[in-house]
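Worked example 2:
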Amino acid sequence: MVEAVAAEGAGQDALVAALKELCEALSFCMEDAGGYFPKEAAAQALMRRAGGGDGPGATPDVILLSVRAITYLCDAMSRATDTVVCHGLLPMLCSRLLAIVYLDVAEQCLQVFEKISWR
């Protein structure tokens, strides 16, 4: 799943499907699975997608699902929060909230902040 999200040149439909699958898997994930989950690769891929690093290919769905996956990742594996924060999570969330383009994305960003604050 993480490989599909990180893949360069993936079609939007395939990317959205991979992000949905990742979100679903993370929503049922337990902390003990953290040893098997590629946190570093996931953090890099999700931050790139959530930050709109793909230019015009970054659709609202891709951005929303990426931020949602980050939310689930921070909730399921508290140790992954440090990894995502090291990859620039806080500035990215702040920039999304300072220039709200998609309300759903802004609401999801607030949920990520909430998960981080519990840590």
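The mean pLDDT is 89. The helical segments are 2-6, 12-27, 39-50, 60-76, 78-86, 89-98, 103-118.
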